[in-house]
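## retry 2 of 3
previous attempt timed out at serialization; input unchanged, resubmitting
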Amino acid sequence: MSTKYKATTTDEAYFITITTVGWIDVFTRLNQKYVITNALKHCQEKKGLEIYAYCLMSSHLHLLCKGTDGFILSDILRDFKKFTSKQIVKTIQEEPESRREWMLDYFQKSCEHLKKDQKYKVWQGGYHAEIVQSNWFIKQKINYIHNNPVKEKIVTLPEDYYFSSARNYAGLDYELEVILLDLF
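## retry succeeded, writing output
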């Protein structure tokens, strides 16, 4: 397996994008958003994940992050995706969801070609990790992450989107703790 876009080191930060299969808009309901933020909190507390910026969109998650304390980011992300896949499917099955049958069918069909036996595939393979190599890169990626909901015309200002670290950087209440970087 190629390591070109894998986060295989423990001493560097990465820009990560994790995307649902077929870019399905899974995270349109609060219960699904909380599946992701609660899992990220767990990874921060128990798996050495440091998050510097994030934004949860309807079909994908952007992170500027790093594995610490001997934890390798690729392992953290593997566990995160495995756990959240199960939780997302469980939430779809147990809570109100008008697209239940369609989504579960899509997730089932998405894993038919896989060699390993699994019932549902929620996340696309990989996560396109780009290593952080400069302050310019950090600023550019944080700007990109925070402006994602603005570009999609969900909000007018980045800090108005609740599931984004733009709120942390703006000094507003937030859902997920991040390590603030000096962007000047």
